[in-house]
Specification:
Layout lengths: L3 H18 L2 H7 L10 E4 L2 E4 L1 H10 L4 E3 L18 H18 L7 E5 L15 H7 L2 H16 L5 E5 L20 H16 L6 E7 L18 H8 L1 H8 L4 E4 L3 E2 L2 E2 L4 H11 L5 E3 L9 H4 L2 H11 L13 H6 L5 H17 L15 H15 L1 E5 L13 E4 L25 H8 L6 E4 L12 H9 L3 E7 L41 H9 L5 E6 L15 E4 L7 H9 L55 E5 L5 E3 L1 H5 L4 E9 L5 E11 L10 E10 L4 E8 L1 H4 L1 E2 L5 E2 L3 E8 L6 E7 L1
Parallel strand pairs: 3-4, 4-5, 5-6, 6-7, 7-10, 12-13, 12-14, 14-15, 15-16, 18-26
Antiparallel strand pairs: 1-2, 8-9, 11-16, 17-19, 19-22, 20-21, 20-25, 23-24, 25-26
Helix pairs in contact: 1-14, 2-14, 5-15, 6-7, 6-15, 7-9, 15-19, 16-19
């Protein structure tokens, strides 16, 4: 049995031996991911044939570095159940492609298959989990690790090597359409979830690698504009946006994707300081960097020349292209003296290293692996249950008694399959998705007491169903209003070359990639629907299915209970129904703050405590509901195990000693349930302005009624360090305020003295 160091050395030797045999053109081929996967095959009946386009590309470069989206199915690719690759044929097609490369290229270098899996593999008959903003609401990295491990199994059974996962984006502006892909507005929670994704997908055997995206600061685009510039300094970059990548590297990440945006005037794809100095030299990243879709062509804005654009990206540290016509020019850039072949060699080594590591050169046939879809369904349901966040429960309206009420289910998200799923979702079979209406009907004792109508759409101004909605409501004891947004793409829509939506008016989309908004209020006539139904004086439960936090200031007073469901995935409707009827005690906590209005933005919780005025003349400066907020059907009390102040010597911290903070937590309520204990700090004495509050540890624990457990939260040297005046990370002596609670509204506090 070889040690990991010995394995690395052996692989590096194999890479060097292969590199010595390669021509410049063959090297360039290994750095290109030019083709869209659905372009490389033709399907007639049950038989598959490789296209001339694929064969020509292989002939030109004597190989392919990676092939993106062979199994991608959605309106952009135009792939659906009739023309796509069903599960039973996936391994056959990947094997066919690898065999062609082996037979028709000089060196027979296999290709890496890369696929989108932001919340499950974007392929036919795959499992679609809650989007990451919902996963973040679980505050449960262990569950995320299990989900990511399952997603990797679905990739392995098809012969896929790389799973593209959005983990690095921090949701700093909810107007951004891709907010749903972020775990949180907070770097610590995002880091723990990123770590879970890497460990879950890659496991110990590393048969699949997670490609973490996007590096870096894409969630801080000015105005919430997709791919817009991030107007931040280095300290903000290091405090907020670097930590998830650092956590991913420490967990074993060997692949990441550069971000579309620029930081302080420098596009990430040409930012050597970011991709080489920080990523490789400081953080110790040993893997490869993939470009985002046609992002290298955006460098033409700087150069006006494809060869120079290739030079900028290659010398910055981008190793593998995606769909662009820039890295196809690398050979000419070398021949024309614009860059050296040695620079190309470094990138080729990183790509080949991964191919050897994943065993692509093995002569053994791929082992057929059958994944238990029931396991996926169970994990899907578990994630959806834990993601649902209760924000309001007036007079304990919830949970409902399933034996008694007549229920009116009304709203655009009550019975819409694709509105439950979010962006980057493949076509669905109807029986694979449980809507809210499905879930309520299946649990209610008498299905005849469950009434339904749509009421209105997401963005339409049509109010023609209002009267019918009020008629059903009058017959009911309680109204469930399924409101929110939609990231559902539709076939026939227009898309950019990178897959981003061009015109969302072709559907009811108000979220998703390239669907940014200026106003966070609910779209269309949803607010009017709520107000008209409120006139009937019937208890109303609002369920918000959404990819971003909507502003609900204008409807909150009319809702007796509020549940945030995010995009809860295929089993989401069942999970929502279970929470409503009390079969599941809600345990979600907000991963992102909910503003009163768009005019408050930014409203993230961890703002800088610089002494400036927080409130506006005409509105509060605080969020309506803050990061970490959430209720349970139970109640919890907690106290520090010791009332004494805490002291720690900064030298001991540097030697690895942690500050431990034991807290006794009791379930005082009538229901068993999870509690999320959160530890925040505020550095009171510092040479640099600090944030009003920063999450540094959390634990999610199960407590039975009247049960007490001791939860020990901890702080490391890194948790207590700051980026000082000289941009050095260090621990400073002084007082740090510790805040602990299951919600920001219920903190207990203690001081820590660093000596």
């Amino acid at each position: 049995m070889h040690t990991w160091s010995e394995v690395e050395t052996l692989i590096e030797q194999q890479v060097d031996q292969l590199l010595e045999q390669m021509t410049l053109k063959e090297k360039v081929g290994q750095l290109n991911q030019k083709l869209y996967g659905w372009q490389v095959y033709k399907k007639e009946g049950g038989k598959y044939e490789l296209t001339d386009l694929f064969k020509q590309h292989v002939e030109t470069f004597q190989g392919i570095g990676a092939l993106y989206g062979l199994f991608r199915a959605d309106p952009w690719s135009g792939i659906h159940f009739d023309n796509g690759i069903p599960l039973k044929d996936c391994l056959h097609v990947t094997t066919m492609i690898q065999q062609y490369l082996k037979k028709h290229t000089r060196l027979g270098i296999p290709v890496l298959f890369s696929e989108e899996c932001p919340h499950g593999h974007q392929a036919l008959d795959s499992t679609v989990f809650p989007t990451h903003i919902g996963s973040g609401a679980t505050w449960n990295p262990k569950l995320q690790q299990r989900v990511s491990n399952y997603v990797a199994k679905e990739l392995q059974e098809k012969g896929v090597h790389l799973g593209l996962v959005s983990t690095l984006d921090i949701a700093r502006d909810p107007r951004w359409g891709r907010t749903e892909e972020c775990f949180a507005e907070d770097p610590y929670l995002s880091s723990r979830m990123t770590e879970a994704v890497v460990k879950g997908m890659q496991g110990e055997k590393r048969e699949v690698l997670a490609v973490l995206k996007h590096f870096a600061a894409q969630g801080s685009a000015v105005g919430g504009h997709n791919a817009g510039p991030a107007l931040i300094g280095e300290r903000e970059l290091r405090e907020i946006h670097i930590p998830p990548m650092k956590a991913g590297i420490e967990a074993g990440a060997l692949a990441c994707m550069a971000a579309y945006n620029e930081i302080d005037g420098i596009p990430c794809h040409s930012n050597r300081y970011l991709l080489t100095n920080i990523l490789r030299n400081e953080l110790g990243f040993k893997g490869f960097v993939m470009a985002d879709g046609v992002a290298l062509e955006r460098l033409l804005h700087l150069s006006g020349d494809k060869e120079l654009a290739a030079k900028y990206a290659m010398e910055a540290g981008v190793d593998l292209s995606l769909w662009d016509d820039i890295y196809t020019q690398l050979e000419y850039a070398v021949e024309n003296g614009k860059m050296t072949e040695a620079t190309i060699d470094m990138a080729v080594k990183r790509v080949l290293y991964v191919k050897f590591l994943l065993g692509l050169f093995s002569e053994a046939p791929l082992e057929e692996k059958i994944v238990d879809r029931e396991e996926g369904k169970r994990l899907n349901l578990e994630m959806a249950r834990e993601s649902i966040t209760l924000l309001k429960n007036k007079q304990n309206l919830l949970p409902l008694n399933k034996d008694k009420p007549t229920i009116a289910i009304i709203g655009p998200n009550a019975d819409h399959v694709y509105n439950m799923l979010g962006d980057y979702t493949p076509p669905q079979r109807r029986d694979s998705v449980v809507t809210i209406r499905d879930g309520i009907t299946s649990i209610a004792k008498d299905q005849d007491t469950v009434l339904y109508t749509k009421g209105c759409d997401i963005r339409s101004e049509d109010k023609s169903d209002f009267e019918h909605a009020k008629k059903l409501a009058r017959q009911s004891d309680v109204i469930i209003l399924a409101l929110g947004g939609s990231s559902a793409r539709e076939f026939g829509m227009s898309f950019h070359t990178n897959g981003a939506v061009i015109n969302p008016d072709q559907s009811q989309m108000d979220s998703g990639e390239n669907v940014d908004v200026a106003n966070l209020r609910l779209g269309g006539v949803q607010e009017e629907l709520v107000k008209e139904l409120a006139q009937l004086n019937i208890p109303m439960i609002g369920v918000l299915v959404q990819g971003r936090p909507h502003s609900i200031e204008h409807i909150e007073p009319y809702l007796d209970a509020i549940l945030i469901a995010w995009y809860p995935g295929q089993q989401g409707g069942r999970a929502i129904a279970e929470v409503i009827f009390g079969e599941v005690n809600p345990s979600g906590r907000l991963p992102i703050s909910i503003p009163f209005s768009s005019g408050q933005l930014p409203v993230y919780y961890n703002y800088k405590d610089s002494g400036g005025k927080r409130d506006y003349y005409d509105e509060s400066g605080e969020a309506m509901y803050s990061f970490g907020d959430g209720l349970s059907y139970s109640s919890f009390s907690y106290q520090f195990c010791s009332k004494q102040k805490l002291f720690i010597d900064h030298q001991l911290l540097s030697e690895g000693k942690m500050v431990e903070l034991p807290v006794d937590v009791t379930n005082d309520g009538p229901y068993d349930g999870y509690v999320v204990m959160q530890l925040y700090i505020r550095d009171i004495e510092s040479s640099v302005t600090q944030r009003i509050r920063e999450l540094k540890d959390f634990q999610k624990i199960w407590l039975r009624v009247n049960e007490t457990k001791t939860v020990t939260l901890a702080l490391t040297e890194e948790d207590l360090s700051i980026w000082d005046l000289h941009m050095k990370q260090k621990v400073e002596q002084g007082t740090v305020l510790l805040m602990v609670g299951d919600s920001p509204k219920r903190f207990i506090e203690k001081e820590l003295i660093i000596q």
